[in-house]
Amino acid sequence: STSMGMRAIVDRGDLLRKIHFPNYIIVASTTMGSMISLAINLVVVIVFGFFAHAHYTWRVLLVPFSIIQLYAIALGLALLLGTLYVYFRDVGHIWEVVLQAMFYATPIIYPISMVANNADLGWAADLLMLVPTTQTIMDIRHNLLSPEYVDTVWTMVDNPVLCLLPYVLSALILWLGIHVFRKRSQKFAEVL
User: Fold this and answer.
1) Which of 5, 83, 87, 148 has the most CB atoms within 10 Å of its CB?
2) How many Cβ atoms from other residues are within 10 Å of residue 122's Cβ?
3) Model pTM?
4) Backbone φ and ψ of 66, nearest 5°
5) How many C-beta atoms lie closer than 10 Å to residue 106's C-beta?
């Protein structure tokens, strides 16, 4: 959603020059399309989980809150990157590299316990859990699949104030994206 949202303004530049409407709608609709795709895929995973006898608990009801947090992060980044992409097209290439690095740095294809159980990298697991995307992914896994086996920021980090850091960073990313986009969006039609 961040890559598509980043390119949304430039891809629809002709529309911006013809009709006057709030520019953020273009980015929001693009990222919302990705969230709809995520919702459809999540329904498929839940249905297959029933057939595979997955252990669902009442915590499944908390998953939408984590998805809202994930969407806030994605929208904030998409607004920020979309603004930068209007002025600097090389941001697209840089973001693709950053996304690849974040994919392997975030425990998506490996469990965080693999990092936490390594004596030399135990500190890295605590640090990873303070990253908003990692915290959100781990919360979704914890609430959806196995609350007894998946760690969250609340179980790995001892300081309750530090546990709030991923949530604060998520709100800060969304605020920064909205702020930068609002400040620069009036000149998009001129630049494009």
Assistant:
1) 5
2) 13
3) 0.87
4) -70, -35
5) 18
Long-range contact pairs involving 45-53 (C-beta distance under 8 Å, separation at least 24):
45/144, 46/144, 49/145
Number of domains the chain is built from: 1
Place of tokens 């693999």: 114
- What is the residue-wise DSSP string for the chain? -HHHHHHHHHHTHHHHHHS---THHHHHHHHHHHHHHHHHHHHHHHHHHHHTT----GGGGGHHHHHHHHHHHHHHHHHHHHHHHHH-TTHHHHHHHHHHHHHHHTTTSS-HHHHHTSTTTHHHHHHHHTSHHHHHHHHHHHHHT-TTT---HHHH---HHHHTHHHHHHHHHHHHHHHHHHHHGGGHHHH-
Residue 54 structure tokens: 């997955």
Q: Which domain holds residue 26?
A: 2-191
The pLDDT value recorded for residue 115 is 78
pLDDT confidence of residue 14: 76
Measure the CA–CA gap between 108 and 138, rounded to whole angstroms.
Answer: 9
Residue 189 pLDDT greater than 70, yes or no: no
Task: Judge whether 70 and 133 are in contact, CB under 8 Å.
Answer: yes
Spatial contact of 76 and 174, defined as CB atoms under 8 Å apart:
yes
List C-alpha distances in Å: 116 to 121, 126, 127, 155.
7, 8, 10, 12
